[in-house]
Amino acid sequence: MANVASEGAAVRRTGAGRAEHVLATLMAAPPSADRLRRVLEQALVLAGASFAAVYAPGDDPAVLCLAESVGLPGSLYGLRDGYPADGGAPVAEAHRTGRPRWLGPSEVADRAEGRRTPEPGFSLAALPLAGPGGGSLLAVAERPEGFDAGERAALELIARAVAVPEPGPADAHEPAPDAFSLAMDTGRVEVGDEILRLFGIGRDDFDGKVETLLGLTVPEDLPALMSVVEPDHMSLDERELEFRVRQPSGALRWLRLRGRLVPGGEGRPAQLVGTVADATKLRSDVTDVARVQRLAADLATAGTVKDVGHAVVDALRKPLRADRIALAELENDRLVVTVLDPPEPEAWPELWRAEWRGEWPDAPVRAMPALAAALRDGRAHIWPAGSALEPGLAGVGPGGLAVLPLPAGGRMAGACLIGWDRPHEFAPDERALLTACAALAGQALRRAHAFDAEHELVGMLQRALLPHRLPRLPGAEAVARYLPATEGLEVGGDWYDVIPLADNHVAFVIGDVQGHNAGAATLMGQMRTALRAYAAEGHPPDVVVAHANRLLLDMESDLFATCVYVDIDMEQGTALCARAGHPQPVLRHPDGSTETVRAEGGPPLGVLTRAEYPMTPLKLKPGTVLALTTDGLVESSGTDLDTGMDRLARDLAAADPAHLGQTADALLAGAHRGDDVALLLVRYDGMAVRPRRESWSVWRVPEAVRHARRFVRRTLRAWELPRDTADTALLVVSELVTNALVHTEGQVRLDLSLVGHRLRIAVTDSSPRGPLKPTNVGWEATGGRGILLVEAVSHAWGTVPVSGGKQVWAELVTDEA
C-alpha cells in the first residue's frame, strides 16, 4: 500500500496528464484478454484506491454483475457480486443517472455496504461507463477525505477508457506457459507447458481433466484447493493459495495458484482462469510480510471476538510450530478466555482445568503474577525452556512461552499466550512477527468486542420483543420461524404475531421495519405492541393498520415498516386481509394447488398521512395453509420479488401440510440470508364444535331489563341448559344490562354464546369507562353491589374495549364434570 500511496502522490503533483498518457498507452496496445484488468489497475496507482471494480449488465440486464476487480477483496467493504439495476446501490444509481456518486464515510455508514462492515471508515466512488451497455466503475479509498480533485479526474478518465470485453471461446488462444483456464461445467482444463512441468506431466500424457492434476496434490492440501475450484465456493474476487504436489520421484513441490472466476454468458460456461508458479523458493519463513498482511485481511473481516481468536491461531500456530495458543479478553482485572487451541481441557495445566467454567476457563490471573506483570508492562514477554515460572504458566509452555499483551487505544484489550512443549529457540524474526501480530489483534479484539456487545443488546431486544410461543388456536395450527441475517448485526426489524380475538377470531400479523440495528428492533417492538392493542379493541383489519400508520407518523421516525394483517373467523372459515407495502400472502388449498393472493394494499406504514388500506376477503376450506413471509425469503440481489414468490408457492405446494414445522424448515432451506427472514404458517382445520350464538339489541324503554331476561330465558330453554344455570344467567344479565342502561348512553347489545359447557354472557355499550368493583359496601350504600354479585356467581368475568366502547362479560360453567 505504501507504493500505491507514493504513486498516488505523484499523480497529484503532475495532474491528469500522466493519467491520460498511461491510459492512451494501454489502449494503443493490441487487444488482449487482460486489458480491462490492466486499465482498472490504474485506479490503484493513479487515484490511490484500495479496491476498484467494474459492474456491467449481464445476461439479465436488470442486474449489474461484477465483471472485473483489482486490489483488496471487495468483501472487506461489504460489496456484493451483483446489484439490481433499479436499486439504490451507488453503482446502480450511477448506471441509471449517468452521473458519478462520491460518498464519504458518514454516507457509506448509512448504506448497506457500511452496515455489512464492522468499521465503515472508507470513502466510495461510483462513475458511469461510457460504453453502449452502460455499467459503473466503483472505487474505494481507505481515507476519510475520499478522493481529491486530481484523483477524481483520473477516475473519470479511467471510466471513459473502460470497455467491458466480450469473452471469447475457451479455445480462442493458447494459454501462456504459466496460465490455465478451467471450464466450471465440465472440469476440462487448458494449461500451459510450464504448469505441466511443475506437476511432472508430459503434454502427451495429460488428458485435459482437472481431476488428473488434483490427484497429484498432497491430500492434506486438497480441501483448501477445492475451495478455489468448486463453483459453490467461488466469488469474482481474486483468490490465492499455496499447495503441494508430489513429483514422480516422490519429492514434494510447493506451488502458488492465483485465480479468479470469469462469469459465463449465453452459450459460454463460467471459467476459472489464473496462473500457477513454483513457490518452493518463494516460500518464506515467519518473517514473510505476507503473513502479517494476510492476518490483517482476516482480522478486517472478523466480526466477533471468537473470529479474531481463530484468525490469530491460524496465523501463528503453524508457522511458529506452537503446541498451544490461548486468546483472552481483559474485562476489568479478569481475563476471559475466548479461544483455546487445542480446545481439550487435558491439553492444559491442572490450574487451568480447575478454572474451567462451561466452554472455556477463566484465565487464573491471580495465580500467575508473571502474566499480570506482562499485562502491566504492555510489551511481549518471552521465556525460554527452564524459566522459573508459576505452574499455571510453566505448564502452558514447558519448552518456551510467549505472552503477548494486546494493546488497543491506550489500554489493554487482552492477551495471547503461545506455548511449546519441546525447547524452542526464539529468533529475532519471530519476536518481530509476534509484536506485529499483537498490535493487529488488539485493535481487532476491541472492535469485535464492541460489535459483540451491540449484537448481544440487539439480539436481546429481538428475543424479548418476538413471541416466546404461539397460542393454542381453536380450529387451526400455527408455526413461526425467524432467521437473522448472516451479515452485519444479524438482527433487524422483522416480526410476527398471533392475536386471539373475541368470538373465535384470530389475527395473524407479519411485518418488517426498515433497517438492521437497535433502532429497527426497538421500533419493531413498538409496532407489534400497537397492532396487538388496536386488534384487542375490536377494530377491523383496515382500521387496525390505519391506526398503526398514524402512530408511526406521529413518532417522527426516519424508518418505515411494512406488514400484512389477516383476521380469520375460525367458525366460518372466512378471513379479511389488509396489506401495507408487504409481500402478498400465499394460500395452499386442500387439493395441493397454490395461489398468491392478489390482495389490495396501501403504502408502507409511516409514509403517507391519509393512507387507506382496503380489505380483501378470503375463503378458507379445512386443510388450507396460509403462508405469510417477509421479503428476506423471496427477494435478494439476484432474485426479484415475483420470481421469489413463485418459488415459495412451488415449495409450499410440494410440502406436507400435516407437518407444519417440517414445512416451515423446508421453505427456509433455500433462504438467501442476506436479510432477516420471518415466516408464519397457518393451517385452517375448522372447529370441530361450533359455538351456539344469539344476540339481542336492548332498547332504552322502561321494561328493557325484563325484555332482556325473557330473551335469555327462551334462548337457554332452547339450548336445554339446566334450571340452576339459567337462574344464575338471569341474575347476571339483570345486573349487567342495568349497569349499561344506567351508567351509559347509546346502543346496548346483549350476546349469548355456548361452547361445550361454557356459557358466555356479554353486554356491549358505547362508553369506554369500565365498571369499578367497590372495595367496601356499607349498609347505607345505594349501589356497587351488582359487580360484586356478578363476580360471586360467575366462573370468570372481565371487560374489553370494543370500537370506542366496551364489552363486559361473564362466563358460567354449566357442567363441572
Automatic annotation (TrEMBL):
EC number: 3.1.3.16
CDD domains, A to Z: HATPase_RsbW-like, PAS
The entry's keywords: ATP-binding, Hydrolase, Kinase, Magnesium, Manganese, Metal-binding, Nucleotide-binding, Phosphoprotein, Protein phosphatase, Transferase
Residues in PAC domain copies: 239-291
Source superkingdom: Bacteria
Catalytic activity: O-phospho-L-seryl-[protein] + H2O = L-seryl-[protein] + phosphate
Key word Metal-binding present: yes
GO MF term set: ATP binding; kinase activity; metal ion binding; protein serine/threonine phosphatase activity
Any Pfam family: PAS_3
Coiled coil: none
Function: Primarily acts as an independent SigF regulator that is sensitive to the osmosensory signal, mediating the cross talk of PknD with the SigF regulon. Possesses both phosphatase and kinase activities. The kinase domain functions as a classic anti-sigma factor-like kinase to phosphorylate the anti-anti-sigma factor domain at the canonical regulatory site, and the phosphatase domain antagonizes this activity.
PANTHER family (UniProt xref): STAGE II SPORULATION PROTEIN E, STAGE II SPORULATION PROTEIN E-RELATED
UniProt-recorded name of the protein: protein-serine/threonine phosphatase
